[in-house]
């Protein structure tokens, strides 16, 4: 029987928790946990074990990166190369062709529905794990998960699936992620606090 992930709630009375639970929250995301050394939204607990046990196909292609590292550029290049420069096919929106595994756990979508009964979004956004799992064509999958939280078959190299890792100058990634988080409302503090959190490896 595979070992289940163990979670530690990050309390607000710690330095890390004070920053996360006051500056990195909005009405759709509350609370954080630490798992395998990584900080994740509390909602990750619903998906962590399922991701670990996810079935991996030999022709899967994963693009993995830290947030704001140039992942979108890499996704487009990888998809076009793998599909013989099919520019017509590339007119389909990128998240549909190259879904992000992480969307399911980033936010509490139940709260979104409570806030707006007319709220709707495509399955590749609202139910990204299910969407990825049920794709019946070659899968191209984006994720910002650290290696230790990827599916176990990727971690133990028991598959021929490919991982393409994208990295960027950390200084540029930090500034870009700060500005992005300000725009999306995921972070409400100043840059100095964000930068210190980045350097201390406090991340989603």
From TrEMBL:
Pfam families: Sulfotransfer_1. Coiled coil: none annotated. Keywords: Transferase. It comes from the Eukaryota. Residues 58-199 form the Sulfotransferase domain. InterPro entries: P-loop_NTPase (IPR027417), Sulfotransferase_dom (IPR000863). GO terms for molecular function: sulfotransferase activity. The keyword Transferase applies. PANTHER family: SULFOTRANSFERASE SULT. Belongs to the sulfotransferase 1 family. This is Sulfotransferase domain-containing protein.
